[in-house]
Amino acid sequence: MGILLFISVLLVAACGLIYELVAGTLASYLVGDSVFQFSTVIGTYLFAMGIGSALSRHIHRALVHRFVWIELLLGVVGGFSSALLMIAFAFTQGFELILYALVMVMGILVGLEIPLLMRIVKDRYHFRDVIAHVLTFDYLGALGASLIFPILLVPRLGLVRSAMLFGLVNAGVALWSTFLFANQLTRTRSLRTACLLVLCGLGAGMAEARHITATAEDNIYADEIIFARDTRYQHLVLTRFKDDLRLFLNSHLQFSSRDEYRYHETLVHPGLAAVPAPRRVLVLGGGDGLAVREILKYPQVESITLVDLDPEMTGLFSTHPVLTKLNDKSLLSERVRVVNADAFPWVDSNRDSFDFIVIDFPDPTNYSLGKLYTVAFYRAVARHLSAQGFMVVQSTSPMFARDSFWCIAQTLKQAGLQTYPYHVYVPSFGEWGFVLAGTHQYIPPSTFLPGLRFVTKEGLPALFQFPPDMSPLSMPPNELNSQVLVRTYENDWKDISH
Amino acid sequence: MLGRRKFLRVGSAALVGLSLKSEQKIAGSFVNDSFQTGHLLRARASFPPPKRTEKLPVVIVGGGIAGLSAAWRLHKRGYSDFVLLEMNAQAGGNARWGENETTAYPWAAHYVPVPGPKAIYVRELFEDLGVLKNGQWEERYLAFSPQERLFLYGRWQEGIEPAVGLTPRDREQFQRLEDLFTDFRKRGSFTIPLELGRSSKDKDLDCISFLDWLVQLGFDSRLLLWYMNYACRDDYGALAADTSAWAGIHYFSSREPEEKGPLTWPEGNGWITRRLLERVGPRIRAGQMAHRAIPTRRGVSVFSGDTEYQAEFLIFAAPTFLAPYVFEDFPRFRDFVYSPWLTANLTLERYPDSRGAEPSWDTVFLDSPTLGYVDAMHQSLRTHIDRTVWTFYWALVEGSPAQNRQLLLEKDWAYWKEAILHDLERVHHDIRQCVSRIDIMRMGHAMIRPAVGSIFSEERRYTQRFHERVLFANSDLSGISIFEEAQYHGVKAAEKVLARLRGRP
To answer: What would the pLDDT profile of B197-253 be if each residue is shown by its tens digit?
Structure first.
């Protein structure tokens, strides 16, 4: 009987540690700051164990009976702790309150276990041996738990089911105790019934864990990820929440389907509608085909060349049904030619001329992308402009990155172009800016295509006006050897986030 | 069940297995070796008698920047009645380049600082090559940002001059030295080309080593002395202790502190060589070593291969240490010391871990015996770059040049390969998984060294009075081996020849 008894000590100790680890890990996952979370969870837990130990002196009789109930209670609370915490985070504001309350309850129950067990077996052994054996197995259990938790449980079972598995262990120990200490018990039958009920409950929980996790996670990450892939060039994530489709490249939001029309209409129409007879159009970047969708609305446009680095990106936007619905299958149009190439060398080696050029690259977050915002690049692009042509450049936010926006405008000027900066409010982005540039004077179009949702003749002048908080700043041009824009951009966003 | 011993054995084997990463096989060899042909001269090997003669007004010997610049000048002045004899299979000298399927890369010199107003020939060349247009430097040819970085104390800093971990004392010394260099700059006697400013008033600075000069002025900051040593190793292939103080000062005081970066290209100064070859290529005979030249009052006979070139003038643009082997009565100079170098081109299948830093143009490690490396793809206009070539520079400065030349010849390719990887591994732990090829070029006499006493050496003047029909053109004439000096002497020799040819009746 001795060894069986001490194995139950080991199991009980393992359960105690697992609940503590589950709580700490979940808090780190969900709230972040793992050092803080683990410190406070462990501290609270140990403190609660102390309370449990102190309370144990108030239990005078029916020790085994109480021990079985404590195990059952712990099995239920600990077993469902992880699921409960996830749901609390997903659906309530009081995650921390529930976290520490749960940790307190579990800690108190765990704190009661060992003193009770010691007292139950105290008459069978020398006091010396009781202490030695119980504590030895207690610590062994802790070691085992701390090893299997990261190696097996988290990767194989996940946090919700790991907690439930150990809830089952607690309930199992309870049931087992009714046999082990049967001679010290009365009313064993009702106890065993309770044990079986808890075991069934937790078993059902294990089976349903997937649903619990899924429900909670859907709420935690708000949007459902419908596509995620590391291509050779970037990390591409597509999310959907109800009717809102969002594309993230390297974690930067590229568009939200709810308001992208504002962005893409404003990117394309003010410039393109001002070109008398646009036949050939070039799009650099913009592999989502949304700018192309706007350009295809012009029946005079005979050909559109889209140059985008990433074939997986243009492939996805040519084939995925949700995405081709969004871009009206623009990339599949006969008028569109998709070229997967690095933009600068392509611009350098190509000799075609275009009536309108759209430059829609990701923001200049690093020196590589910074090359695509330089005087040298704009000079090379400008060589492709036909006599009546214009180009438009996605130029980050004149509000959040005001220095950067005016640096891009200055860079275009330095390349010998006349510039016409403008901006638009896109709810998912905030204020966003563009610079229209050409070798001749821009005369705003007298009419726009019918059916546009945002750009109108009447609304156009307002786009070209900059209120004082976005008004022009004197900035140096961005050149390959200085890359001032990358540094400026970094500072702009640093200022925002602090 | 496993016994305890067996368990330990299996367990430790498993751990060892985990620590062994799959290592890429690294290919490569020595390339462009030239000492075999060069040593034929030294051995005074018997060369076959000429089978044919060719009469020409001008022969240029040596296809480095000096010789090519002389050729460029003649060509530009509408004069194409000359040949250029180059010993190696490829012209360019210290501005040679290589190329693989990823990129072109330099074999030696990899940049030219933006030339100042006095370097008129360099400016003229750059206008000719489209590098300087309407007073503006072409953006694509200026070194892209980020340019230089130094790895020190486990982190990166921008620029090579140490700026991290300086004590107030270090800072004071850096500032004091910078002020000194500014004063020297204002004097106007440290110029490029060197000949236009060099003044005998500064002769005493040539009588002392750069290190002694610094120490005498109370400079003892470890970081400052490291930086001064780095500058001398990088430009002169010598320690500050083996460099004339005059040359050390010239390095820092001859150029305006410039805002724009240096001019550079994927293949380094090989780009200039290529452009020059486009213009004068047909006049160049590569793989032709001039093994004997006999000047007379009426002209110069130059023997190479099976041909005797009967020229009116010879522009000798090979290094001066070869002159005693080519001319009968040319003395051996004591003050002409040459630094041995090693360069290597590493083909990388991907960029190694760089501890969070974005790739830079030029990378240097503090306290490394080597000079670091330059990334050939840095000047690429592409936004996505995976494969590249790094050019690794190593001036062998510890010990005498003769010892180091011996070392270059003795040690095999694998020895140098390991030494290079070992150096890089200190910063890029996974470099061995990234490199697929290492080609190594050994240069026993890579460049003239501005040793103590060499700048104002009397021997330097000898070349001018050696013979009226032989014009020397190389950077040895200046005593420092930089592009601008080689180009200056090449152009000047061409001008002199043209004047003589046109001045005759």
So the answer is: 999 999 999 999 999 999 999 999 999 999 999 999 999 999 999 999 999 999 999
**pLDDT given for residue B20 in this prediction:** 47
- The count of CB pairs under 8 A between chains A and B is 56
Checking if the pLDDT of A445 tops 50, the result is yes
Pairing label, strands B284-286, B82-86? parallel
Q: Residue A128: which pLDDT band, with cuts at 50, 70 and 90?
A: confident
What does chain A come to in residues?
498
What CATH number labels A2-220? 1.20.1250
CA separation, residue A132 to residues A14, A33, A118, A139, B370 (Å): 18, 38, 11, 11, 62
Residues A168-201 have pLDDT tens digits of 999 999 998 888 888 888 888 888 999 999 999 9
| Cα atoms in the Cβ-side hemisphere of radius 13 Å centred on B232 | 28
What residues of chain A lie within 8 A of the CB of B260, using their CB?
Answer: 481
What are residue B390's phi and psi, to 5 degrees?
Answer: -105, 135
Asked if residue A232 lies in contact with residue A310, where contact means CB atoms within 8 angstroms, the answer is: yes
Contact check, Cβ <8 Å, B142/A372: no
Cβ atoms within 10 Å of A32's Cβ, excluding its own: 9
- Write the CA distances from B146 to A479, B156, B363, integer angstroms: 12, 12, 10
Our count of domains for chain B comes to 2
Examine the pLDDT at B104 and tell me if it is beyond 70.
yes
Q: Are residues B70 and B180 in the same domain?
A: yes
Name the residue with higher pLDDT: A244 or B405.
B405
Rounded Cα–Cα distance for residues A82 and A78 (Å) = 8
Residues B341 and B469 grouped into a single domain = no
How many whole angstroms from its chain centre is CA B163?
Answer: 27
A374 interface with B at CB cutoff 8 Å: yes
User: What is the average pLDDT across A218-232?
Assistant: 68
| Contact between chains at B140 and A480 (C-beta distance less than 8 A) | yes
Pairwise CA distance, residues B147 & B260, whole Å: 11
User: What would the pLDDT profile of A345-401 be if each residue is shown by its tens digit?
Assistant: 999 999 999 999 999 999 999 999 999 999 999 999 999 999 999 999 999 999 999
At which of B403, B423, B449 does a domain end? B449
Contacts of A345 in chain B (CB under 8 A): 381-382
Which helix (H) or strand (E) element contains residue A289? none
Of the candidates A367, A390, A377, A368, the one whose C-alpha atom is nearest the C-alpha of residue A347 is A377
CB-nearest partner of A480 from B139, B382, B385: B139
Bridge partners, residue A426, by sequence: A430
Q: Is the pLDDT of residue A29 over 80?
A: no
Q: Which residues lie closer than 8 Å to B410 by C-beta, 6 or more apart?
A: none
- Is B139 close to A348, i.e. CB distance below 8 A? no
Dihedral (Cα; B203, B205, B206, B207), 10-degree rounding: 100
Is A488 in contact with A395 (CB distance < 8 Å)? no
B444 and B455 together in one domain: no
CA distance A374 to chain B (A): 9
Q: How far apart, in whole angstroms, are the C-alpha atoms of residue B273 and residue B277?
A: 6
Q: Give the catalytic positions of A in this structure.
A: 360
Q: Kindly determine whether residue A309 and residue B384, on different chains, have CB atoms separated by under 8 Å.
A: yes
3-class DSSP state for residue B27? Answer: strand
Q: What ipTM was reported for this prediction?
A: 0.84
Contact between B79 and B498 (Cβ < 8 Å): yes
Structural domain range at position B183: 39-336+450-503
**Residue B10 belongs to a domain:** no
Residues in chain B: 505
- The topology (CATH level 3) of A259-497 is Rossmann fold (3.40.50)
d(CA B125, CA B272): 9
| pLDDT value, residue B42 | 84
Mean per-residue pLDDT, A29-49: 86
pLDDT of residue B40: 86
